[in-house]
Amino acid sequence: MNETLIESLVRENVRKLKPYSSARDEFTDVADVYLDANENPFQNGVNRYPDPLQKKLKRRIGRLKDVDPQNILLGNGSDEVLDLIFRAFCNPEIDNCIYTKPSYGMYSVLAATNAVATKEVLLTKEFGIDYDRLMAQVDEQTKLIFLCSPNNPTGNLLKISTIEKILLNAPCLVVIDEAYIDFTDSPSWTTRLSDYPNLIVCQTLSKAWGMAGLRLGMCFASTFIIQTLNKIKPPYNVNGLTQDKALEILQNEEIFQSNLNVIKEERARLLEKLRSVPTLQHVFVSDANFILAKFERSNEIFDYLMNKSIIIRNRGKDALCEGCLRITVGLPNENNRLIDALMNFQ
Ligand SMILES: *Cc1c(COP(=O)(O)O)cnc(C)c1O
Fold first, then answer.
1. Nearest protein Cα to ligand 1, atom 12
2. Full-model pTM
3. Strand ranges (E), 248-336
4. Residue identifier of the C-alpha nearest atom 11 of ligand 1
5. Which atom of ligand 1 is nearest to the CA of 205?
6. Which of 205, 263, 284, 294 has the highest Cβ tally under 10 A?
7. Mutual orientation of helices 223-232 and 77-89 as an angle, nearest 10°?
């Protein structure tokens, strides 16, 4: 797909709109006296507007991810990033999007919020994509295909060759949600941005980087797509405290790496331990920081754990997930408490 085709996917009103130009957009240099933004001059740490394009933070993230800052958009969590994608490309009541089942619940919520029709494509029994089944759903009004890899709530990576085929043949944008990419050894799709102009990769600082409370979502795409999203984003969508704190935590790659290693080791240990739980029927191998497992009497187990003050997620109502519980990998002692409780369930 070429750039002209991508341009034709943008909503007409978005293509035509002239973005709001903030004081911080119009003057980006350094000065002594700032009397341009109607800010309060008394300093308290947050009296100035933050950088609307988060240049410093993007430089850091760009270095970390090996992506040029002009190919990065940051948002108030991935949810904002995904919402911006809907609003830039999908005409309400006209266009549609495609996502797999089971997958992350926000795609359908954001589609409904934006009055965009949805087409759900069931994964295979092994939680893979059936290419023909998915492509059969694509029509003239399809603007977005969401693929989550590693997938939530199943934990598996989606096959690279299938995604490549979709990127090549789908006449729309393909959004790959990589919220859990740091927990796998598979390369990020950000390494393929220059191959596919219709590729959008979403990541987050909420999971492996441990900053769920900050709300910082990342989007990687062609310069054209990033510029389009920049046009419609709220000018100061990532607040100053978030930018500062993210920069601070991102400085320390050693802590990140050692915490990540613990989580990966605990994931392997938890997986092994789960195999000896008497009520376990199946445990799915995971490339994320959680494990999906199928149990006999799963609803009872869920309540039993809750009574023991251990909260996991019941995914039994998701497609293909009957009897399945989703367990986030915690600290070693937390995982031990879970395993002890499960071993004692009768
Ligand atoms: C957790 C998660 C996110 C992250 O959302 P944030 O809004 O950035 O916290 C995105 N996608 C999936 C599939 C997730 O599981």
1. 179
2. 0.97
3. 280-283, 290-295, 313-314, 324-328
4. 179
5. 8
6. 205
7. 100
